[in-house]
Specification:
With 674 residues, the protein is α+β, with helices and mostly antiparallel strands. The chain is built from 27 helices and nine strands. The chain folds into four domains: 134 residues, Endopeptidase. Chain P, domain 1 (Glutathione S-transferase Yfyf (Class Pi), Chain A, domain 2, Up-down Bundle); 65 residues, no CATH class; 159 residues, Neurolysin, domain 3, CATH 1.10.1370.10; 240 residues, Neurolysin, domain 3, CATH 1.10.1370.40. A five-stranded mixed beta sheet has the order 3-4-5-9-6. The model has no long low-confidence stretch (mean pLDDT 97).
């Protein structure tokens, strides 16, 4: 094979991906080469004539496919943050081959019997080895190892089709999101928008060679219209476009939604479960549907009661300020923003000027130093996949423990939202050498303009804090095996480190450690920080209902109940908890719900609320000891952050908190106690 930077030894600092050398044509041959090597490694383990042991079976299995994992991590991360039609076409060809290989492993009878034999004697293993063994054994069963031959063939067919559809779903949402944009040349139509938002829109238009102001459905742009535009028809237009992405358009996901849900149910039934939720939840902290519904229903009553009061107050406020007619969903963000400004004498623009991105980065890094003794140094020696990406060497007490990539701004090649991922997870080689993780944070924040730096909203600051909590989980991992490294924990536990990190965002000591006016350098004043604190629970009931509605919708798709073919009616029934205003015809959540249809949160969206309970209760210990208390932070590190998935999730929580979590801490923090 000719030189391929993906398969040749990486002569880069810390063996980081050689992005400056990788071209699209390198991926397919690299995947095929890596698949060949991985298959040989699996066959060697399965055909080993020696008695099965943890080292020659489970440890060998954990370390197999290293080259394939490296290539996959690069390719699939770039597929969502720097994609192209060419990459999407490659994915459609490669994904079935990867799914087939995954099935070859889980359905390999000789390999499974070796794993089973080690599993049956697991009590002699140490804690990490035992967890790896139990996780691997359950994974084999959950992926068809005990099926009859005819059933295995059916399992292969179903999983192959599912992998193709989830990939197509994501591509469609991205295409639909970027299919709409609007150039506005009459500035009077943009009454109400702050000058900073107009500057960004003008810069976006200029980049397209057009005059005027360009707005689209990427989050900063869309939110600017919904929160500030006085023109109600403009808000309505953008709302309807956003709320109908991939629904009855050129990138329609309607058929895919039903087929994906059906395929998941068929797989679950094939494996002996009534529905996909039951299948998924056996590997979660919740354990079963009853516990999920108990959580959602426990939170529903106080959330709904608070939200009804909040919504009525907002409508009353709107009418007092000249609004006439029926209140619609495209009025919510606009009047919520005005009501918030009125109650708290607060203007988002007043706060943003204290959050230039470079200062925010320094603040987030500074908190990590204060709590966990981490230091960050920017470096230009590490190749990046896009010119805006920044890289940092992360050190703990002078020793480099990770590389961090930060990718902040929207672009047409990036999907919406914010997420943490990795190009390599922390693990140790067979001879005990520690391999440091390569962690990446991808966001869609407000970009800079010709006359202003990137100035973040408080919501963007909180999002950064959230994703950085995930990054800490990945960077501080100290385990031996990659299968239990970093964020390789149950889905309803993985949000604990991220959500707990948000709690510092409104603390005056934290904010005043970095928040400086981008022009004058003035420290954010106490009075403005107090407004931030006062607003913490503004519309907390509605926001809780919104998350609960997504949780109920997710469970509806993955429970045993048959779903009907009227998608809008189906969603109305599932999401009643948030239906305070009419649901417009032609709008659909499911067709753009990437979290559950292509993002790994199927039958798991409840996990955000579950983790909120964990984080509120865990943070209460910080509050008891002092939120900058180094000993408490060290305990959180020792019990949770460095452990990865090496212990049961509930045990890790109890190790830190001293008991199991209580929902009251969340209700109290959110002001929802009845």
């Amino acid at each position: 094979m000719s030189f391929n930077p993906l398969t040749s030894p990486w002569q880069t600092p810390y063996q980081t991906p050689p992005f400056d050398e990788i071209k699209n044509e390198h991926y397919e041959p690299a995947f095929h080469h890596a698949l060949k090597i991985a298959r040989e490694e699996i066959q060697a383990i399965a055909n080993n004539q020696e008695e099965p042991t943890f080292d020659n079976t489970l440890a060998a299995l954990d370390r197999s496919g290293e080259l394939l994992d490296s290539i996959s991590n690069i390719f699939f991360n770039l597929l969502v943050c720097n994609t192209s039609k060419e990459l999407q076409d490659i994915a459609q060809k490669i994904q079935p081959e990867l799914t087939a290989f995954s099935n070859e492993i889980s359905l390999n009878e000789k390999l499974f019997q070796r794993v089973k034999q080690v599993y049956e004697h697991r009590n002699s293993l140490n804690e990490e080895e035992k967890m790896v063994t139990e996780k691997s054994y359950r994974s084999f069963i959950r992926h068809g190892a005990q099926l009859e031959e005819a059933q295995k063939e059916e399992y292969k067919r179903l999983t192959m089709r599912l992998s193709q559809l989830t990939l197509q779903f994501s591509d469609n949402v991205l295409a639909s999101t970027h299919a709409f944009s609007k150039i506005i040349t009459d500035e009077s139509l943009l009454s109400g928008l702050p000058a900073s938002e107009l500057d960004i829109a003008a810069a976006k238009a200029k980049s397209k060679g057009q005059e005027g102001w360009l707005f689209d459905l990427t989050m900063p742009s869309y939110q600017a219209i919904m929160k500030f535009a006085d023109n109600r028809e403009l808000r309505k237009e953008f709302f309807l476009k956003y709320a109908s992405r991939s629904y009855k358009d050129a990138h329609d996901n309607t058929a895919l939604v039903y087929e994906i849900a059906s395929l998941r149910k068929q797989i679950a039934k094939l494996l002996g479960f009534n529905d996909y939720a039951s299948y998924v939840l056996t590997e979660r902290m919740a354990k079963d549907k009853a516990h999920v519904y108990e959580l959602l229903e426990t939170l529903e009553k106080p959330s709904r009661k608070a939200a009804e009061k909040e919504m009525q107050e907002m409508v009353d406020f709107a009418h007092q300020n000249g609004f006439q007619g029926d209140f619609e969903r495209w009025d919510m963000s606009y009047y919520a923003e005005k009501q918030r400004n009125s109650i708290f004498n607060f203007n988002e623009e007043e706060l943003k000027v204290y959050f230039p991105l470079d200062k925010v980065i320094g603040g987030v890094f500074g908190l990590a130093h204060q709590l966990y003794d981490l230091d960050f140094s920017v470096t230009s020696e590490i190749p990046v996949y896009q010119k805006d990406v920044k890289t940092y060497k992360v050190s703990h007490l002078g020793k480099i423990i990770a590389i961090l990539y930060l990718d902040f701004f929207p672009r047409e090649s990036k999907k919406g939202g914010a997420w943490m991922t990795s190009f390599r997870d922390q693990h140790k080689t067979a001879d005990g050498k520690n391999i440091i993780p390569l962690i990446s944070l991808v966001m869609n924040f407000t970009p800079a303009t010709d006359n202003k730096p990137s100035l973040l909203t408080f919501k963007e600051l909180t999002t950064f804090m959230h994703e950085f909590g995930h990054a800490l989980h990945g960077m501080l991992s100290e385990v031996t095996y990659s299968s239990i490294s970093g964020t390789s924990v149950p889905r309803d536990f993985v949000e604990l480190p991220s959500q707990i990190n948000e709690n510092w965002a409104s603390d005056i000591r934290f904010l005043q450690s970095f928040a400086r006016h981008y022009l004058s350098g003035e420290v954010i004043p106490d009075s403005l920080v107090q407004k931030v604190k006062d607003m913490e629970n503004f519309q907390a009931g509605y926001l809780s209902c919104r998350q609960l509605a997504f949780g109920f919708l997710d469970m509806m798709w993955h429970d045993e109940k048959e779903v009907n073919l009227d998608l809008e009616a189906l969603e109305h029934e599932a999401m009643q908890v948030v239906d305070f205003f009419p649901r417009p015809n032609g709008c659909c959540t499911s067709t753009a719900f990437t979290h559950i249809f292509s993002g790994g949160y199927a039958a798991g969206y409840y996990g955000y609320k579950w983790a909120e309970v964990l984080d509120a209760d865990a943070f209460s210990l910080f509050q008891e000891t002092g939120i900058f208390n180094h000993e408490t932070a060290q305990k959180f590190h020792d019990c949770i952050l460095c452990r990865g998935g090496s212990r049961e999730a509930m045990r890790m929580f109890v190790d830190f908190r001293g008991r199991e979590p209580k929902v009251e801490a969340l209700l109290k923090r959110s002001g929802l106690l009845l």
